[in-house]
Amino acid sequence: MGCSSCSTGKDGQPSGCKNNGTCGTDGCNKLTVFDWLSNMSLPNGEKPFDCVEVRFKNSRKEFFRNSENLSVSIGDIVATQAQSGHDIGMVTLVGELVRVQMKRKKVDYKDENLPKVHRKASQNDIDKWQKCRDREEEIKKRAREIAIILKLQMKISDVEFQGDGSKATFYYTAEDRVDFRQLIKDMAKAFGIRIEMRQIGYRQEAQRLGGIGSCGRELCCSTWLTDFRSVSTSAARYQQLSLNPQKLAGQCGKLKCCLNYELDMYLDALKDFPSQETKLFTEKGLAFCQKTDIFKGMLWFSYRDDPANWHTLTKEQVQEILEKNKKKEKVTSLEEYTVDNFVKEEKVFENVVGQDSLTRFDRPKQSRNRNNRKRNKAKSNSGKSNNKNTGNKIGNANPSKNKRRRNNPKRQQNNG
């Protein structure tokens, strides 16, 4: 995939870098394109495509012409042409898929003014580029302080250095137009580099900063979403969501992008569904729609004079009443239709586990008493047998003594 750690292992399974979604080589992200033509050889006599795709910091990608016929592959660090000096980036795609990507992004690959790849980056180029990237946080903090001193209504969200360290691009967000001419002068004097200011939207800012959404997952814009479509409040109305700005707005302050995910399904379901502004004319009075349920195909209506009592109608029944109203015919009342819709729901509990009783593990009390009786009875029987045995032993021990006691007249008189 994006890096060598994601290659296939010995057992045929992807080895992976074990970083739980964060690539250790910064190669596996939403900007990575899987080169499914990498294992295929070109036909005889066909030259490889001479353009490559190079990724820079964050989401910036550009196309360059490999005029020197360098043997570059995905993941190589290259020095590319810039307006002044050179820039350092990582190759993300080579081969015929670059032609497809250029056509999709409407970039003419026959253009002679297309920037070029100078060379593979040397260790000196990489060290210089790394030092520049280490300075970005410090410079961003200092630039924000200068903007606050000048009282500019803007927010500097990110800084990107050119590979050779001669230029820095400051990305900022602002609601109105900002005059930052004095800001550029002060920053150029403080940092000693050329300054370029580039305004971005609030969604692009959230994409660069990242974060956790209200759903508990990482932001879609920072993980996989690449195209930002406009989101309107009508998307929330179609899905019958409460228009609460605190719940509908994301971290960028705009409406959440996920409101568009299920919008097409709702629009398809609403094609043959009566509008929520539908009015029904009956002899009992005018009825207004109070609530709709697209999935169940039900609508709830109430009379203008009695808005507290709602009557449930199906989609077909509402369309039938509307056809009669078009013919200037009034139905008697809504109650005639709601009687058919009232179905008493019986709760049915199925025995999904296959067990009949919840007390199947409890032993009945009778069996316990029966066991106790058996034990007591066995103890009593054993006691009697022991007494008999001891009595026989005593009587047989000295029989002559027992005869003397029976024949002794003095003992009989005392007993009498």
UniProtKB/TrEMBL annotation:
What GO terms fall under cellular component here?
A: cytoplasm
What are the residue boundaries of the PSP1 C-terminal domain, all occurrences included? 115-200
PROSITE patterns noted in UniProt: PSP1_C
The superkingdom listed in its UniProt entry is Bacteria
Q: Which InterPro entries match?
A: PSP1-like, PSP1_C
Please note every region of biased composition (Low complexity): 379-400
Give the start-end ranges of region Disordered. 359-416
User: Residue ranges under compositional bias (Basic residues)?
Assistant: 366-378
**Which PANTHER family does the UniProt entry name for this protein?**
PROTEIN PSP1 (PTHR43830:SF3)
This protein is called PSP1 C-terminal domain-containing protein
Q: Which organism is it from?
A: Zobellia amurskyensis
